[in-house]
Structures are given as structure tokens and as C-alpha cells.
Specification:
Four copies of one chain form a homotetramer. Chain A is an alpha/beta fold. Chain A has helices spanning about 15-25, 40-50, 65-80, 105-135, 155, 160-180, 200-205, 205-215, 225-240, and strands spanning about 5-10, 30-35, 55-60, 85, 145-150, 185-195, 245-250. At the A-B interface, helix 4, helix 5 and helix 6 of A face helix 4, helix 5 and helix 6 of B. Bound molecules: nicotinamide-adenine-dinucleotide (4 copies). Chains A, B, C, D: InterPro entries: NAD(P)-bd_dom_sf, Sc_DH/Rdtase_CS, SDR_fam.
């Protein structure tokens, strides 16, 4: 799909990977509709990218009505939707059973799965319906493109990541069945599994932790730059033959047990 | 781990794969504690296997208190717990967007993930805590064994399986991080990904559907027998070196798009 | 890595995926050095792309001396080498034991593995040595980029593909250890696993076979275009953070048993 | 398949995993035919297990005639063949390009692939032909069972393992296409991917290396015992529904880069 002139929803677009993707797709001529809970950041992005081609909507992606209402605003402003980049997500680090005997709260597990997996599905199902109803195919072949964000923790989760890994491998596993379904709607869907990226999610770590992460990454031996994630999003939108695939973006990192 | 004399919880043990596993482990000398919502079936199993070595508890695995209370009953009767076979689960078949425009209800997605993924986690975290507190290691090396049940739909989900695939790949993805954590507790955890098995979950299909499923399975060209699932459970309990692994049990079936 | 002004070796560059990749990288300003056994085609490509920026060398990639000599020619003309796109490969379709009792010749198996796996390794090891000795890092970070070509038959090979699947999964499996090694050389390596592409390798099939292949591909429901492969190569060269990864390029196709 | 009274070929049966598997299957009542290059060890095994139910044949599995002749001896003694456990294999550790500039010899790569991949295929194709011609199905359903031995280096090969990883991932990749083909012959085929096992292949390492390997294995935090491998072989023979699958047997180990 050609990017220029198209409209993309970026969930979690107010920070980190989503923010950089919003910038990048905007610079390529796309309209950007950001769904995020962080109003302050959201408004800043619109200021930065310009309110003619960008819009922010305060949304909790786990809530049916919140997303529905937001999509109405999006359609009112941009008329059509051509894809979603799903970046909204939360991390969590907690052992199932800690050494001191504390047990992983069920609520925490549920919350992580709710946002990362169920929230992602919630947005996609509602947008798929809208794209399906948009009459004309935009490019010769395609009507829409979805990108989901998993994590390499989906494949080799570490100690403390049972909830996060479960939520992200859930995303990995629903990629193919959705690609198979969306074939008749002329929508593609792929997933990016990032390694460790320089974003606010990671930024709070102490300097020594960051050094040790960098050392564990084969090459390039540093965290990923959000621009590199955004660049892969661009390719996944533009290359029509990639579908139903999950791509690791990690400098050849494989997560060790700790 | 040797099976004779040990106590295993079997969730979903009142029907299908869990029922057959209860029978099999019981025949090998284990105490069986069944957690299931189906009281009628549950009571029948206890009758069949004998109430001295078997107990049924009416539990919804998604509910924290329900499982906790049930575990107290289990400990009262059997004193110790050595493992869980997680078979409780539900299926669902629904397109994200149907041809008639109907959209996959968010509730349905949430319910499937709640039971298959979050319910599984709920039971494991509470039992891991109990096993951790049991003083003595039962065998030379091991204090506990967990088996989770995914599905090959975790890997190549079909049209209509986005919720089911998501829930089951979530189980697949949390296998390794939990194995890594449970190492210090001397607990192993593995997952079985069944193909298509002759159970009530499948049994309602019309004869022609069953014939076409059988034809799609390379060899043996028939559905799996619950006994074959139970037999693999036995091996996963007995073979101490299998850990953090997901095993397909499917007669070499790979699910096609429809 | 920026492509303009760099020199890439394309094995199998005289036909199909390699040919289109040669054209594409050339159009982006790269020097192209084609290693192929097909002299006639090879010379045509040089004519098409211009002998100042393109060179053809008649090489059998399985032969140590043939590749070594060829690399000397390459260095004489272009001074430096920055990467290899490994497209040289052969297909084979033969049952292990045919219905009429004929057995898969060992030679055929060996030949397929020799070209697709060992030939690929032969070129990479010799070029890695050259890049390692080139003094200055070309871009800020990277000295070289390798791309190997596997096939989705590496993951779900069909009847008759034991040799081909073995050779291609061999390529898949050596991607990560090579990425880990090449980290110290500042070289990245990734693998593309194409589905079914419109090339001479496929072109000889009858029209009905092609129709049935197309129908099996979810979306886009047609064979891949070599341009789409070349476009992914471009991205793998340009996106510095993708390393040690294998990417399916297949329109969400999963190969069924036949 | 029931093991008692059946005849199994064990390649590499004179040492390590193959030796222990020979012992184990023999103790379960099987006839064992060992193909190995190590005559001294081979003769010892026959002495140990008894020459009525065991036979050794000095074979290089890479050679067509050597294997063919040996199979004639096997049939003469045991009349029928019901399966092969492929354990013959060699390891190799060599960087593609060493720090001192030495390049991985092509011969070494070829030799490793020749033994581990092509040799495995060579034995299987010839035995599949024999089993196919044996008139009666031995059990109700099955005529034969094959087990191949890969390695977890097929999935996350380390520095120095490009040849070994390539050969073992080749084995992984041909598992499914062979299972699909052998379906019509009523033969199952599966692959075991061992982690690190206490065998002569590993035994030569210094004590510190062994300690560091053990520490890297989550649980049980020690090398695998050949008995555990043999035990999984037993299960793969006995459980009719496991087919086309690759099973990691590694105590939840994931290989890090070094
Ligand atoms: N940064 C990394 O290293 C890394 C690695 C692997 C995967 N990821 C994934 O990438 C995605 C983006 O991560 P990031 O590093 O940019 O994080 P981030 O915290 O910088 O940004 C995430 C954004 O999502 C928003 N958000 C969270 N919950 C939401 C909800 N319920 N509804 C709407 N918006 C919500 C937050 O407000 C925030 O703006 C996440 O899904 C994360 O799991 C990140
Ligand atoms: N049968 C198959 O072909 C197949 C294939 C792949 C995976 N599986 C999985 O195997 C497992 C067992 O399946 P089955 O075929 O035996 O199904 P089944 O329906 O025969 O048995 C499932 C049991 O789980 C119980 N259960 C459901 N929800 C529960 C809850 N919230 N709390 C407690 N108990 C609950 C049910 O009452 C039932 O007794 C499931 O997880 C299923 O997804 C089955
Ligand atoms: N076309 C497809 O559908 C498809 C699908 C999956 C993978 N692939 C892989 O993509 C690669 C390119 O395939 P293609 O379709 O372009 O095939 P192609 O036959 O059009 O081109 C392959 C080229 O490799 C050359 N070659 C073969 N053996 C060689 C040797 N020993 N030394 C040097 N050159 C040699 C041939 O001369 C030919 O020019 C192959 O590795 C193939 O296995 C192709
Ligand atoms: N030991 C481990 O930690 C480990 C780990 C992963 C995989 N494996 C694999 O398991 C298999 C068995 O390994 P092991 O540790 O028992 O090794 P081992 O060296 O103890 O035994 C291998 C046997 O194979 C025989 N052999 C080698 N080449 C042969 C040939 N061309 N023809 C016939 N026989 C040949 C040897 O003579 C030897 O008896 C190998 O394939 C190995 O790659 C072993």
C-alpha cells in the first residue's frame, strides 16, 4: 500500500515506538490518528505534526465504547481509514511466586493481557469492520493493513515475564488466523516482535542495567532506535506480499533466562 | 517424577482429555483431584475411580476464591500436591467480521482468553505457591510438575479461531518463562498442543465434518484418542529432562486456512 | 547500510529472484557482481544494467576455487565488497519411496544440499573473510550485510520435498549462529523464506497447477512478484536492527501436505 | 507400536545416546541392529546385550553400499525391520572466520552435513523401502517408526556451530515432509532435539566447562542422562499419535550466543 494520503491509526502513538511511527508515517504524507491514554503527550504530538494531518483521541483501547466513539471522530475528520499500527501496551515484571512467598496477583496478569492482547483485538475488530464497509479498494489490491506489536518475550520470556509473555504470544498466535480471515476483506496483518528499544518503557532503568542489556545484543550492540521500528512499519505497509508474518527486530538478541 | 502415590489436580477432569487423564493417572496409582464446573460429570468420575483416591470440586478456574477454597479441600484430603494437568478450556468459532457484517463480540474474545489463558495461570500460580511451601522434595530432584494444554491452533489458527488461537498461543508463550522461574522451586512445566481429539468438544460435529477432518490428518488418519493424550501426560511427568517445551500431538496435521 | 555506491554480490543473479534483485539494487546505485552458472543470461544482465556498474562471473558456488577466483575479479573491478544476496539454488521434487518402489537417489539429495546449503556457506565464508579484512567500516556501524534465501518449505515441506526442505531448513538454522559470529565483524545476516514466486523455477508449471497454487495463497491471492522479494532485500540492507532473523514472504501461505 | 519382539536399527548405537537406547529397547524385548563405525565398541555392545537379540554391523552411514549390505545382514538375521533410531552423528566447532584470519574449511562443513544430514537420509530412505515391502502391518495401524536426532543448536546455534546447526536444522526441516510422505506407508517419523547430554561427545570437556554448562540449564540443572533420551525414544515408538514433531529434551535450556 502506498502511504501518502492514507490514514493510519496509531494506538499508543503518544510515546515511544508509536510516537516515532506517527512521526515517520506523517513525514511520508499519511494522516495520523492517535489513540492513547496519555492526553498531555497526545496533544504535544498533534502540535508537533500539525492538526490538519494529525488528530489525538483520549482512548483506553480495552473499552468498547471508548474506541467506538473515537473511531467516529476519526472518520469525521479523515473520511477513511487504511490501517492500524497497534503500539499501545504495558509491561510488567513479577514472579509467579516470589522468594518471600508473595504470589503474582491475578489482577496484574489480567490487566496486562487486557491491554496488550484484548485491547489490540478490540481496536482491530472495529477497524476491520469499517475498512470492510469502505466501498472502493484504495490501491489496486489492498483495502487495509494492520501491524501488531508483540515482543521477543513472546518466544523466550524471562523470569518475571509470565504475564507479559502470555499477552505478547497471544498477539503472535492470532496473527495468522486473522490474516487468513482478512484475506477476503483485502486486509493484510503482520506483527513486529521488538527486542529492547530506547523508549520511556525502558528508559527508567539504571545505567548499569542498560550497559548489560547492550552487551547482550549481538549486533548492533545497542538498543533499537524507535526509528528502526518505524522504518519496518513502513516496509510492512509498502510490501504487499508480506502477510500473516511475525518479524523479530532485535539485533539477533535471544533472551536468556534472567 | 514417579506417579504412584502422588497427588495431581486435573482441571477440566470431568470430561474429554482431562477425564481420560484422570483415569490413566489413577490407574497408575495417583490421587486425583478434579476441578471442573460440571458437577454431574465430576461426581460420576469419583464414583468410577473411587472416592478414596479421587475427589471432585466444583470450581470455576477463572475465580480466585473458588480455586483457593478448592485447594484447601484438596490439601485436607491428600495432604500434598505434586502437579496439575490443566485441561479446563472452552472453544469458540467466530469470524472477526462476518460476511453479514456482524462483528466478533469483545465479550466472547475476553471469555475465551479468561478461561483458557488466565484461568490456567490462576490455578498454576496458587499451586506453585503450595508446592513451594511443601517441605520435602518428593523425588530426589523434583517437587512438582505442571502440564498445560494449548492446541495446534496456537501455531496455525484457522478462520474463526482468533480468540481461541490467541488464548492458546498465550499458553504456549508463558511455558518457557514459567519453566525458567520454577527452576528454583524444582518444578517442571510443559505444554501439550493437541491436534483434533475425539472428545465431547469435537463430538457434536456432523459425520461429514468428521470424515473431512480425518482425511486431513496424515497418519494415523483419524482423530486422536484421549488415551494418547493421557499417555503423553504420563511421559511428561516421568521424564525429568523435558522442561519448558511445547509438544504437538496431532498425527502430523497442519491446519489449513479453512 | 546505505545502498548507493556499495558493491553487492548476487549469486543466482542471472535469473528469477536474483535477477530482479540485481536490477533493483542497481537502480538504487549499487555495483552488482553476479555469480551464476548460466553464462548466456549472465551476459544479458550486464548488457541491461551496464558494464560499468555490473559484472558477471561464471561460477559454480559449490566449488571453492571457482568462487575464490571470481572474488578476485570482483575486487579488481569494484575494490570492496559490502554484501551478498544468496539466490543461487535448485529445486527438486522426488518422493523418498515412490509408489512404484523407486527410491530417492542419494545423489539427488546430495546435489540439492550441495548447492542450496553448502554452496551458500561456501560463498559467505569467503566473502566474510574479505569484508573482515577491508579496513574501514563503511557506514558508521556496519561493514557488511548478507541475505540468504530459504523457502517456506523449510517449515512445512510437502510430499516430494525432503531434499529441498532439508537444504533450506539448513539455511534457516545457520542464520543465527552466523549472525552471532559476524557480530564481531560488524556484519549482519538474515534469511528470506519465499512462498511461491513467478520465476523460471515455477514458470514451467501447467496453467491449472498455477491456478491451484494461487487459490491456496490467502492474500494477495497470486504468486509473489520478484520485485517484492527485491524490495524486502532492500529493507534488510537498509534497516540496521534486523539481524539473525528469517522472514517469510508468502502472502500468508502455509503449505499443505500435498 | 509395541516394542517387544520388534527389530530396531540404531545408528551410532555403539556409543552415547545410541548405546543407551540400544540397551533400553533391548531391555524392553526388541532386537537391536547397530550400525556404527566404531567396531570395538560395537562388538562390546553385542557381548553385553547378547548376540541372539543384538547384531553389530560396521557401517559408514554416508555410504550407499555400506548401508545396503548391512541391511541385508539385518534382514537375514531378524527377518523384518520396524524402525530406525538415528543417533550416528559428529560435532564440530569452528568459526566461519577466526580472529587470526583462518577460514572455516569447506571440507569440514561438508563432512558434518554429510554425516548428520545426508547420512541420516541415506539410512531412512533405504529402510523405508524395506518396511514398505514388508507385507503385513505389524500392529493394527503401524508398519514402522523412525526417530532422528537433531540438537537444540538447530534452533539457537552458538558461535562456532554454523556447520553443526546447519546439519541439525536440516534434519528438523525434513521431519515434516517425510512424515507427510510416509503416511501412506504407515510409518511415523519424529525428531528429538537434545540439549547437552553426558556422553563421550561431551565428556572430553574440562570440569569448569561442565560446571558452567550445568549452571546454564534451568532445571534439572545438570546434563541430560542418556537414559532420559532413551526413555523419550520409547515413548515416541509407543505413542501412535505423535508424528512429524520435533521435541526439545533440554531441561528448558536455551543456548546463549557463546
Ligand atoms: N520498548 C521496548 O523495548 C519494547 C520491546 C518489546 C515490545 N515493546 C512493545 O512495544 C509497544 C510500545 O512500547 P513503548 O516502548 O513505545 O512503550 P511506551 O510506554 O513508551 O508507550 C506506550 C503507549 O501506550 C499507551 N497506552 C498504554 N495503555 C493504553 C491503553 N489501555 N489505551 C491506550 N493507550 C495505552 C501509553 O499511554 C503510552 O503512550 C508496547 O506494546 C510494548 O509492549 C516495547
Ligand atoms: N478435543 C480437541 O480436539 C482439542 C484440541 C486441541 C486442544 N484441546 C484442548 O484440550 C482441553 C480439553 O478439551 P476437551 O476436548 O477435553 O474438552 P471438554 O469440553 O470435553 O472438557 C473440558 C472440561 O473443562 C471444563 N471447564 C470449562 N471451563 C471451565 C472453567 N472455567 N472452570 C472449570 N472447568 C471448566 C468443562 O466443564 C469440561 O468438563 C481444552 O483446553 C481444549 O481447548 C482440545
Ligand atoms: N521461485 C520460487 O517460488 C521460490 C520459492 C522459494 C524459494 N526460492 C529460492 O529462491 C532462489 C532463487 O530461485 P529462482 O526462482 O529465482 O530460481 P531460478 O532458477 O530462476 O534462478 C536460480 C539461479 O541460480 C543459478 N544457479 C543454480 N545452481 C547454481 C550453482 N551451483 N552455482 C551458481 N549458480 C547457480 C541458476 O543458473 C539460476 O540462474 C532459490 O534458492 C530458490 O530455491 C524460490
Ligand atoms: N551428547 C550431546 O550433548 C548431544 C547434544 C545434541 C545432539 N546430540 C546428537 O546425538 C547423537 C548422538 O550423540 P552422542 O553424544 O551419543 O555421540 P557419540 O560420539 O557418543 O556417539 C556417536 C556415534 O556415532 C558413530 N558415528 C559417527 N559417524 C558415523 C558414521 N558416518 N557412520 C556410522 N556411525 C557413525 C560414532 O562412531 C559413535 O559411536 C549425535 O547425532 C549428536 O549430534 C548429542
Amino acid at each position: 500500500m502506498k502511504i501518502n494520503g492514507k490514514t493510519f491509526i496509531v494506538t499508543g502513538g503518544a510515546s515511544g515506538l508509536g510516537l516515532e511511527t506517527s512521526r515517520h508515517l506523517s513525514s511520508l504524507g499519511a494522516n495520523i490518528f492517535i489513540m492513547d491514554m496519555n492526553e498531555e503527550n497526545g496533544r504535544k504530538v498533534v502540535e508537533e505534526l500539525g492538526s490538519d494531518k494529525t488528530m489525538f483521541s483520549s482512548v483506553d483501547i480495552t473499552l468498547e465504547d471508548s474506541v467506538k466513539l473515537s473511531l467516529e471522530h476519526c472518520l469525521k475528520k479523515f473520511k477513511e481509514i487504511h490501517g492500524v499500527i497497534n503500539c499501545a501496551g504495558i509491561a510488567a515484571a513479577m514472579r509467579v511466586v516470589k522468594r518471600d512467598g508473595e504470589i503474582h496477583p491475578l489482577d496484574l496478569f489480567t490487566r496486562v493481557v487486557m491491554v496488550n492482547l484484548i485491547g489490540t483485538f478490540n481496536v482491530i475488530r472495529l477497524v476491520a469492520d469499517i475498512i470492510n464497509k469502505q466501498n472502493k479498494s484504495n490501491d489496486e489490491e489492498e483495502k487495509g493493513v494492520f501491524i501488531m506489536t508483540a515482543s521477543i518475550a513472546a518466544f523466550e520470556g524471562q523470569v518475571g515475564q509470565s504475564a507479559y509473555s502470555a499477552s505478547k504470544s497471544g498477539v503472535v498466535g492470532m496473527t495468522l488466523p486473522m490474516a487468513r480471515e482478512f484475506a477476503t476483506l483485502k486486509i493484510r496483518i503482520n506483527t513486529i516482535a521488538p527486542g529492547t528499544f530506547e523508549t520511556p518503557m525502558i528508559g527508567m532503568l539504571p545505567q548499569t542495567a542498560i550497559k548489560s542489556i547492550n552487551d547482550s545484543i549481538p549486533f548492533p550492540s545497542r538498543m533499537g532506535k524507535p526509528k528502526e521500528y518505524a522504518f519496518l512499519c513502513q516496509h510492512l505497509i509498502e510490501n504487499t506480499y508480506i502477510n500473516g508474518e511475525v518479524i523479530r527486530l532485535d539485533g539477533a538478541l535471544r533472551l536468556s533466562k534472567l
